[in-house]
Amino acid sequence: MMTVLFTMIRKEIQEHKLAFIYAPFIVALVLCAVIISVYLGLTDIQTTNFSFSTDVYDEKYKEGMLLASPEAKTAVIRAGLVVLGLPILLTVGFGLLAYSLSTFADERKDRSLIFWRSLPVSDLTTVMSKLVFIVVVIPLLVLPNLILLQLVASLSVSIYFVSNDIVPFGYVWTSYFISDWFRIIFSLWAQALWSLPIFLWLMLSGTYFKKPVIGAVVPLVALVVLEGIIFKANNVQEFIENRLGFWSRADSFPIQYEEARVVDITDVYLMITTQAFWIGMIASAVLVAGIVFTRSTNNDFTVE
């Protein structure tokens, strides 16, 4: 079974290179070009939290950088690198939503489901291969792009610093930890598990509804409206909003961080121990059962 599972995961990678390999890489290259242009003085980046510009390094700013504690310096560098990586994560996030909605709908639309049913592969194995692809493989495909972006950013700023006599070349690198890459991958795996109910709901709509987009949206809107009218509550809406966002910023997460940051491994453990996480896992198990059952009994190949 493991051999079959690995083969099906390789198939998913081959079929979705554009969304999960090429698109993030292109976004990373564009961001690298922007970062280099910033430190060449050709442009700048303004965000609500950060200002990436060569105009900010006056004498007072340089003195503050030299006097900054190692902890403060590390926090600022890590936060800046996290913010730079957000466009890549958003690109992959939208790709995941599209993939989840279309993966089972497409096999009904082109009737390839008939072919897959002729193979000695169970519906459960097929569904599990897609879950492993979402939860485990895609974060691993994203990580090299984040590493490339962070290395280019660190190298660019270091060259700018030393060439303009602001701080030594090693100023950034002494506060930059390769261990952050492991923290990022664990955080991405946790994010995939956190958002799994959303992906599975989209998959379920693709296995059943003739119009998967409408089938995914209308029942949720109806639940939100009915809950508000009958129970005067908005738990369904909050559940959806939290699962679409970062798990470390969810209302149910015990620690509320003010700054953008790479979460600690202990934060991942803390998330796994929350009631909200296990509610999501139970919902995911129910949705998986629904997908397997619906796909195994599906004789309607009409998708619009």
UniProtKB/TrEMBL annotation:
<keyword id="KW-1133">Transmembrane helix</keyword>
<feature type="transmembrane region" description="Helical">
    <location>
        <begin position="213"/>
        <end position="231"/>
    </location>
</feature>
<keyword id="KW-0472">Membrane</keyword>
<feature type="transmembrane region" description="Helical">
    <location>
        <begin position="181"/>
        <end position="201"/>
    </location>
</feature>
<feature type="transmembrane region" description="Helical">
    <location>
        <begin position="276"/>
        <end position="294"/>
    </location>
</feature>
<feature type="transmembrane region" description="Helical">
    <location>
        <begin position="20"/>
        <end position="42"/>
    </location>
</feature>
<keyword id="KW-0812">Transmembrane</keyword>
<feature type="transmembrane region" description="Helical">
    <location>
        <begin position="131"/>
        <end position="161"/>
    </location>
</feature>
<feature type="transmembrane region" description="Helical">
    <location>
        <begin position="75"/>
        <end position="101"/>
    </location>
</feature>
<protein>
    <submittedName>
        <fullName>Possible ABC transporter permease protein</fullName>
    </submittedName>
</protein>
